[in-house]
Amino acid sequence: MKVLKTFSIFAAALMLTDAAQARVKLVALPARARVVVSLANLQATLVEEERIITLQKGVNKIDFSWKGVSIDPASIQIRMLDQPGKVKVLNTSYPPNEQALIWEIASPAASAERMRISYLLQGITRQVVYKATAETDETTLTLRNYLRIRNHSGEDLDKAEIGIGYGANFKRTVQHQETIELLSERIEKLPIKKILTWDSKQLPWDPEYEKKTVGIPLNYVIKNDKASKLGVHTLLPGKVRIFIKTKEGVAFTGEDWGGLTPVDREMKLYIGQSREVKVVQRKTTDERVNLRRNNGNRVVMWDQNEVYKVEIQNFKTTPVTLVVREHIPGYWTMIESTHKYDKKDAFTIEYTLELPAKSTGDKNTTLTFNVRRKNVQGNEPSTY
Amino acid sequence: MKRLFIILLAAVCLPNAQARINVTSLPGRDSVQLTIYNSADLTLVKETRTLTLKKGRNRLEFSWAGTLIDPTSVEFRPITHADEVEILDIRFPPRVTNTLEWNIHSEFAGEVKTEIRYFTSGITWNADYVCEANANENQMTFAGNVRITNRSGEDYPKAQIRLVVGVVRLVEKIIDLARQGQPAPPAGVSRPTLETATRARAGNALGAALREAEERQNEVVKEALGEYFLYTVGGRDTIANGWSKRLPSFNTAEVPIVSYYKYEKERYGAGVMRFYKFKNDEKSKLGKEPLPDGSVMAFRTVTQDNLYNFVGRTAVKYIPIDEEVEMQLGNDAEVRIAPKMMNWQKDAIHFDKNGNVTGWTTKATWQIELQNSKSIPVTIDIRRTFPGDWEVATEDKFEKVDAKKIKFVLQLNPGEKRTLNYTLTTRHGTNATK
After folding, report:
1. Lowest-confidence pick of A235-239, B40-44, B126-130, B289-293
2. Does the structure show a pLDDT above 70 at A2?
3. Does B240 contact A18 at a Cβ distance shorter than 8 Å?
4. Residue A213 and residue A197: Cα distance in Å, rounded?
5. In degrees rounded to 5, what are phi and psi of residue A292?
6. Whether the Cβ atoms of residue A115 and residue A51 lie closer than 8 Å to each other
């Protein structure tokens, strides 16, 4: 692939002509001494390249031009690395209708100067891709974290040091129109939790009325902490493909978009549904109490007494963790509950239940709770 | 691209258009000065030319086809022999645009130094800044530049350049006047008037001392002019038509900054907005001059050899001396601020004599999860807006911003996680006390 960007320097003697005539083409073309690509900012790709340029004593003109490359001209910076206080940029000229600029650089003596040119380059996209292979018992997995770089910038990045904001930089060549995938992390035996979540707002309460077997969303939960051999940096969003080991090779179990996960927080991956667990929820009591009437005998406020019964059967031969998520609007108090719950917010509670293997029929898990919703007027908030 | 022509015509007055080809001399410019405004598309051009006049009547033609000169603004004035040279009238010939003729009576025969002054559109300047924060984000090197762009249709070689900051009032745009080619009253206006320098925004203007390199020994002369600030770039510069030129203005190292994060749902949505804050004062090694509004590119040096991370880009407003500046640099996922309402109650119900509910009080308990995933400490500013008759109870320190808004300002150490808790009581209906 041809490098489309050109870089040239004019000797001092050549450049005393008027700026408008200065678009004479190159005298020397110093090769890049170093290229660094920073992908740390999710919105923009920063390229820094270093060139060693022989300067004459006095004022030198350096022509920096690019064709077929999408560089934001306002972003271009130049820094002197060898003699930053002595070699000075006098000004920058931008010729009309050209993707180019000319630096006038004053040097106190004839010398070779290492310069670093930085600019924002469009057309380089990066994706974080996770590939996970779970052990057969689904308690641990091997997580491989890849950085996929797609270069459609028009520019070949030769032996570029590519950084993503954490960890060591990769040194790779990425040609124009090339996509590379780099393994950035590999974690063996990363503990996972496998959790089914039954949400009373999203799933039918009585599967008997459904034509198809109700699937309960199944998640793998990875915690970004030291105990999980992670916890060093925020996990960036990306697609996670999950495989499971089989007697021969692996099988694909599902994929999800992993969200941005700071240290000590959980990445929840929805990988499919389980039809081996059946949940039936019924409201066994639903009555208005403590009625308050106005002079027209209309009930203007009341309390609502609600009892819920949730019967859960696990048909699997292994135990299962099930989260039952319930939504209770307005002002409420829990009168009674057979199981401990976590209050996730004002209007949401979660029960985390360990369902024994083959807990069906009489051996099922039954959860009941009695909620008193208070001072109800029919306009209770359920979100905030 | 020379499109401005000045022609001395034969002394005898020739009434028809062909007369203008009767050229006697073509004086070039001796000097040019450009005074460029940044609040309006306006540049005052002052050029000097040496003309050879005859005793008696002289006609002088000035034409500017292909440029953006305002014909109503062109003025002519003798500098030498001023008491011997008199302008009798100015004529814009028929059927010819972008041309005028001065009818001059001279008592003197020989070279006369003259000044021609006019407004042109198409030359602009703006400021830009580069912020180079250190790895700890507590100091920056702050560099200012000015960029001048010439799209006026005319080259102004070796011009003295002056830059003005300040808000100039124009009742008509220079570009519109330029396109007319000749003075013409716009509809509804009896006579175009041009008011410059009426009122300016608070504070005078322009920062950016333009510094040329020592090699050129250029100086920058700063002048406060009423509500304006005028900077004269030392030496002479050529900015050919179509070209832009960026000149370094200042470069100050070790300017203290505060890395600052704001959360205000009503203003920035659910994300956390990142800011660098600094003060344009002497303590911060700035404060020598106000800084004109302009764009900012912010980088952070992250390695021993000062490689950059791109932090963000933004625009800053005009910054007077001693003013604190916030540069808004976009979202940062490494700082998490997540408010959750953990409890909600409705109590203290009041009924009127008819038994209808007229007053009630809600009590909401909020928990804000804070997490700094960065390796450096950060300051967080969280603002919460509450309608109605409200009251906040919390063990955390907060400040009332206005009648409906409070803010929590706190520091988070590297990797720190904590929660902020408060209870919001709101009195509704007849329960309201204010």
Report:
1. B289-293
2. no
3. yes
4. 16
5. -120, 120
6. yes
Distance CA A185, CA A198 (A): 33
Q: Which of A41, A79, A234 sits opposite B310 (nearest CB)?
A: A41
Mean pLDDT of B76-83: 93
The model's pLDDT over A57-71, given as tens digits with 9 standing for 90+, comes to: 999 989 888 888 888
Alpha carbon A312 to its chain's center: 35
In chain A, which residue's Cα lies nearest the Cα of B240?
A: A20
Interface test with A, best of B243, B273, B337 (most A CBs within 10 A): B243
Do the chains contact at B365 and A18, CB–CB below 8 Å? no
Query: B36 with B123: CB under 8 angstroms?
Result: yes
Query: Cα–Cα distance between A270 and A32 in angstroms, integer?
Result: 46
- 8-state DSSP, A124: E
Q: pLDDT tens, A179-197?
A: 999 888 899 999 999 999 9
The helix, strand and coil proportions of chain A, stated in percent and rounded to the nearest 5, come to 5, 60, 35
The tokens describing B231, both together, are 């900077």
Residue A343 at interface with chain B, using a CB cutoff of 8 Å? yes
Contact present, B45 and B32 (Cβ < 8 Å) = yes
What integer pLDDT is reported at residue B287 of this predicted model?
Answer: 87
Determine the length of chain B.
434
Interface test with B, best of A90, A126, A379 (most B CBs within 10 A): A90
**pLDDT at B199 > cutoff 90:** no
ipTM confidence score: 0.84
Residue with tokens 């009547």: B57
Q: Do B308 and A18 touch (CB under 8 A)?
A: no
**Per-residue confidence (pLDDT) for residue B25, from 0 to 100:** 53
The gap between the terminal CA atoms of chain B, to the nearest Å, is: 71
Residues 178-217 of A with CB under 8 A from B: none
* Interface contact flag, A93 B243, Cβ < 8 Å: yes
